[in-house]
Protein: VWFA domain-containing protein
Organism: Didymodactylos carnosus
Amino acid sequence: MHFLVKLLPVSCVFVLIKNILYYMSKTVNYYIVKLELDTFNNPSSMAQQCYFDIVVCLVITKRSLNDVRLQIESMLNNLSVTHLRLALILADQVEQNEFVIRAYNFTPLLAPFQNYLRQYEALTEVKSPEEIAKTLHRVLDLGWRVNNTDQNHFEMWNENLCILMTDAPPLKSDCDRDCPSLRHVAQRFDEKGITLIVVGVDREAMLYESFYCDLAKITGGTFIPFEYAEALSKIVNGSCGELTVRQTLFQMYPDGFRGW
């Protein structure tokens, strides 16, 4: 090449170099386009899929039951998540002064979830805020999916969401060993990557908006009054692209997750 440059005029050298660079760029562009086409046609190399685990926790009284059922049904009808699993945890009445926590683990089927919801009778009244603390504590025992790669080499990024709907006051302080504090439970949620959204049903829960909001923020979540609960499906659907649930919430409610 050095010998050839000496024999050619300067103008010819420039033309030669220009042609070499041109064909080099064509070759590079060819391989870039080929790589993009291979990526598009090969599912194993495409962007990660979105998987959602959602648990709905209900600590409500009978006066709110019908409205809550209708709102949950509306949310489910508006979801556009393909890899969705649902779980249900209910604070239910067994005797006049006693309650029991009923937990139904994750299922990809909608029918069982709806059946459990229809069978729920709710509480006559909330006599103690322990119902909320114990209900949320059961969330930690569910079979949450973890992020991994499936048999087709898809990266499975799982979003974990807990929706608490309640018309009850919260438990603000620690109590005995059988009743963990809500703040402690929220910290455990954060460690496990579970985002908490509290939906305040009725005036009783709205009195504690500030506490519930601060509690949910520990997990990257928020507090939503029941009248704005239609936002739940928008939050979930908006988190099936490049954004996580927490990022979606921050974009929707950047002012401290409060925009009511």
Notes: The first strand starts at residue 49 and ends at 59.
